[in-house]
Automatic annotation (TrEMBL), chain A:
<dbReference type="InterPro" id="IPR035906">
    <property type="entry name" value="MetI-like_sf"/>
</dbReference>
<feature type="transmembrane region" description="Helical">
    <location>
        <begin position="232"/>
        <end position="253"/>
    </location>
</feature>
<feature type="transmembrane region" description="Helical">
    <location>
        <begin position="100"/>
        <end position="123"/>
    </location>
</feature>
<feature type="domain" description="ABC transmembrane type-1">
    <location>
        <begin position="96"/>
        <end position="300"/>
    </location>
</feature>
<keyword id="KW-0813">Transport</keyword>
<keyword id="KW-0472">Membrane</keyword>
<protein>
    <submittedName>
        <fullName>ABC transporter permease</fullName>
    </submittedName>
</protein>
<keyword id="KW-1003">Cell membrane</keyword>
<feature type="transmembrane region" description="Helical">
    <location>
        <begin position="175"/>
        <end position="196"/>
    </location>
</feature>
Automatic annotation (TrEMBL), chain B:
<dbReference type="InterPro" id="IPR025966">
    <property type="entry name" value="OppC_N"/>
</dbReference>
<dbReference type="InterPro" id="IPR050366">
    <property type="entry name" value="BP-dependent_transpt_permease"/>
</dbReference>
<dbReference type="Pfam" id="PF12911">
    <property type="entry name" value="OppC_N"/>
</dbReference>
<feature type="transmembrane region" description="Helical">
    <location>
        <begin position="131"/>
        <end position="153"/>
    </location>
</feature>
<keyword id="KW-1003">Cell membrane</keyword>
<keyword id="KW-0571">Peptide transport</keyword>
<keyword id="KW-0812">Transmembrane</keyword>
<protein>
    <submittedName>
        <fullName>ABC transporter permease</fullName>
    </submittedName>
</protein>
<keyword id="KW-0472">Membrane</keyword>
Length: 316, 331
């Protein structure tokens, strides 16, 4: 077990190292305007001096070395355009709680709605007309097939128009958070309901469930005690990723409702071409998504003792 | 020229025993003779006139919902191709002076936008661009995915190396790759296709590899190998039917995903330049005016068309994958 975790950790670090190196090298190809606040007014000499000050006149490997030694000291550089001379780490630290609060609330709602929905759909496959299953499937197809970017807009449109909810959030007014949280939750509801339904249908065709049914155990008891428990195991893997991804915030929802979180930040700095912040954010995003997968795998191995270490579950 | 045959210890064992049988003296006709197809004997022996594509199409045609969406999808695809050739069709970017923000009417079916462009032709031109992106991404994904996946699964020596590479790159979130590539390169249709193709084939390759690994040493493949079937024939006849289901599903889902990505990337300001109408550009333009109730049609027409396209691809893909799975043919 310890060996597996250690190996997994090492691989994650290697991945992170490769991504950061590639991103760092690629960003050197960017136009240098992204490093100065008022590039148009600067003379060639000033630009050169500025580059020297930032250490950008050195060869690439030397820059990379500088970057890594700064990184190990917890320094991601300072912003140039977005908020002049504010350290990137400080900007991130300010934004993360906002995104997390909204993300975790919506994830909680998604689990509270999605899991019962999955169970009901799976049970409905055993009824005659399967109406519940059909309705649920239609909902899932709709959410999965229509790009999130599109239904977010539709929710905002109808929410503000007919429910008279404000278009932008303001702290202190919980009503303003309804639409963004709903938008974020929908995707996860469909996701968890779909997988739980599939795993439960698979599970309920197994022999031990048939035996229980033949013995006359009530359907609700079978579905709660046997089928759900076994079907939930594979889903455990997704939850840490979902939790950790809330750190990232949603790029789209946050800028739609002007939420001052992480997702809105990335869009903002990309539009302003603030290279240092983009680089810092990419590093942060890559790190947390890798962490999410790592925690998911380890948790999965702990929850289900049948899973052999060092072998990744195939396919999905 | 000797063709390539796959050999391992199992094949050798089997060909040895086949050799023993051969060494007994049978007459030519006794040993091998084509039998005519006889239905009654066939039933007894479990042989049937089974045809893979026949069964696939039959079980697909039974699914009414899927057929409806297939017809819708084909209709839209055909129309996007035909639309610019229709006699009245103007250039999508033509600006009609004095016809700004007109509500849908007889002359402009979907109305006009804030600078006086006909939304009808803009939308169909956008659908063309978006579908082009989607199809290109799906094709690259399928081709690269199959080639790498089959190599990965069939050639034992490559397995370790490929798996390690996969484990590293699979951790990179795709959105991030697309954002970074679009940020660094000049925005445009080809940049977008490149960015989306870069990592999407990894998943397909993984799925193909898993399937190939499962099927390659099944008895019927072993038998084919012993009988000296050429490798390409094993691939086409024995392996491909199992992959068709996965591949069509992946391809059908890759298209709506690519279209959705395009909308998203355009939204964060890294999309295709505004002169090229895409669904993303149209939706973004519609979003800026959606709060004025007289103009909200500028958001809703592109949104509705896009949703119809993505939903039909999704449903047709899923149903076809179910129909193409040989496991579902045995009733």
């Amino acid at each position: 077990m310890a060996k597996y975790i250690f190996k997994r950790l090492l691989r994650s670090l290697l991945t992170l190292f490769i991504i950061v190196t590639i991103v760092f090298s690629l960003l050197r190809l960017m136009p240098i305007e992204g490093y100065f606040q008022n590039f148009e007014k600067m003379s060639a000499v000033q630009v050169e001096l500025g580059l020297k000050e930032l250490g950008l006149d050195k060869p690439l490997p030397a820059q990379l070395l500088d970057f890594y030694s700064d990184l190990l000291h917890g320094d991601l550089g300072v912003s140039n355009k977005y908020r002049r001379n504010v350290p990137v780490t400080k900007i991130i630290a300010e934004k993360v709680p906002v995104s997390m609060a909204i993300g975790l609330t919506s994830l909680g709602i998604a689990l509270a709605v999605g899991l019962p929905m999955g169970i009901l759909m799976a049970r409905s496959t055993r009824t005659k007309h399967k109406i519940g299953d059909k309705l649920g499937t239609a909902f899932i197809v709709l959410i999965q097939a229509v790009p999130a970017a599109v239904y977010y807009l539709v929710i905002q449109f109808y929410g503000t128009k007919y429910l008279d909810l404000p278009m932008q959030i303001s702290s202190g007014r919980p009503v303003t958070y309804i639409l963004p949280i709903l938008s974020l939750a929908l995707g996860n509801i469909a996701y968890y309901a779909m997988w739980l339904r599939r795993y439960m249908v698979d599970e309920s065709n197994k022999d031990y469930v048939k035996l229980a049914r033949a013995k006359g155990v009530p359907a609700s008891a079978i579905s709660r005690k046997h089928v759900f428990r076994n079907a939930f195991v594979p889903l455990v893997q997704f939850i840490p990723t979902s939790v950790i991804l809330t750190l990232m915030g949603s790029l789209y929802v946050e800028s739609l409702y002007s939420i001052p979180g992480m997702g809105g930040l990335l869009v903002n700095v990309i539009q302003r071409q603030d290279n240092t912040v983009v680089q810092g954010l990419v590093l942060f995003y890559a790190a947390i998504s890798i962490l999410g997968l790592l925690v998911g795998d380890i948790l999965m191995a702990i929850v289900d003792p049948r899973i052999t270490f060092g072998k990744k579950e195939g396919g999905r | 020229m000797p063709s390539f045959r796959f050999k391992d210890h199992k094949t050798q064992q089997l060909s040895q025993s086949v050799g023993e049988v051969l060494s007994r003296n049978y007459s030519e006709s006794e040993f091998f003779e084509f039998a005519p197809y006889d239905p009654t004997a066939g039933e007894r022996g479990g042989y049937s006139n089974y045809s893979y594509w026949g069964s696939t199409l039959r079980s697909f045609a039974q699914n009414k919902v899927a057929m409806f969406f297939l017809i819708l999808m084909v209709g839209i695809l055909a129309f996007t191709v035909v639309e610019p050739m229709l006699p009245y069709a103007p250039e999508a970017n033509t600006i009609y002076k004095g016809a700004t923000n007109l509500a849908p009417c007889k002359e402009y079916w979907f109305g006009t936008n804030s600078i006086g462009q006909d939304l009808w032709s803009q939308i169909w031109s956008g659908v063309r661009t978006s579908l082009l992106i989607g199809l290109a991404v799906a094709c690259v994904e399928a081709v690269l995915g199959v080639i790498m996946g089959v190599l990965w699964g069939y050639v034992r020596k490559l397995d370790f190396l490929f798996t390690e590479i996969y484990n590293i790159f699979d951790n990179v979130p795709q959105t991030l790759v697309v954002i970074i590539i679009s940020y660094i390169l000049r925005p445009g249709v080809s940049t977008m296709i490149f960015a989306m193709c870069l990592t999407s084939w990894l998943q397909t390759a993984r799925l193909v590899r898993n399937q190939v690994l499962i099927i390659r040493d099944r008895d019927y493949n072993l038998a084919s190998r012993c009988l000296g079937t050429a490798t390409w024939r094993i691939m086409v006849k024995n392996l491909l039917p199992y992959l068709v289901s996965i591949l069509t599903l992946r391809m059908a889902l890759a298209i709506p995903a690519a279209i959705g990505n395009e909308v998203f990337i355009t939204y964060i300001g890294l999309g295709v330049p505004l002169e090229i109408p895409t669904l993303g550009n149209l939706i973004k333009a519609g979003q800026t005016v959606m709060m004025e109730s007289t103009l909200s049609y500028q958001l809703f027409f592109p949104v509705i068309i896009l949703s119809i396209i993505t939903i039909s691809f999704y449903i047709v893909g899923n149903s076809f994958a179910d129909a193409a799975d040989p496991k579902n043919h045995v009733k």
